[in-house]
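Hi Prof. W.,

I finally got the Magnesium transport protein CorA prediction working! I wasn't sure whether to trim anything, so I left the full sequence exactly as given:
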Amino acid sequence: MIRVMGITQDHRVDAGISLEDIQNAKYLWSWIDFSEPTEEESCLLDTGFHFHPLAIEDCLHVLQRPKIDYYEEYEFLVLHALDPDTLATAEVNLFIGPNYLVSFHHRPITEIDAVWEGLQQRTQSRTSWTRGPFVAAYFIIDALVDQYFPCVYALEDELDELENRGSRESVELLMNQVFELRSRLLKLRRTIVPMRDMLYRILNSQHIQGEKEPRAHFADVYDHLLKLSEMIESDREMTADLRDSYISLNSNRMNGIMKTLTVITTVFMPLTLIAGIYGMNFVNMPELGWKYGYFAVLGGMLVLTVWMILAFLRRGWFK
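And this is what came out:
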């Protein structure tokens, strides 16, 4: 589906116009949105707008890393939208020209739909800086970045809950949950850090030079991405600390088990030796004919066991 919005010279919004209408001189700039385009509609990127083949290739072959490329007459942006439930990413491509904005995405993006509706109201408010395609691009980027916060906050809540119940569950289950959290944090990092770097390039480029108010709003989005990246790094460090703590706890438990088994084995070694000696079937064994030999051996084994246990207690082996 292709939908077109035109902003007139007197800052009124004409939604639902055709692609041919955007050439009308009454439109100051226009926004063309390709949502779930067909193959025929995708060809318009080349035949209708004559975008660079490399940019078109990036649109058609997902999933690209968030980035910005500068061409002679327009800028090409690759953005990522996040699903807060699954953390799955969806690519959003923007072509920003002097009097047009082209957005291209292979599935519906709720953030773009919200911007599409909201931009009409903002444009009609006649605010001076809302009169160009860079503004619509800012609204889209800001909406996408705002959706990152619930994803990060949800993982932080899971991390706090995991830390609080650490003493009530098995180490194996906790370790699996920690590694699952680290994997999801890595997914977020692969989106947020490139988006942060892309905003940094925008702020330090000459393409919005002199447009102070849009630059200030892009700087605000950049600050949000800085905060998100710092939160992710902090959460990754916390999961690393939890992982190390669980590994140490598991090692201590294993050491305690091994020490207990070692003590039991050490106690039974001399008893096994005695039982082995008197279990031999030699004919000439004087003790075998002794009336009280069986009870004497059992008593000796009992005394030896008590002595060894007391010796281990004095040396602190059971602490």
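The mean pLDDT is 82. Does that look reasonable to you?

Thanks,
D.
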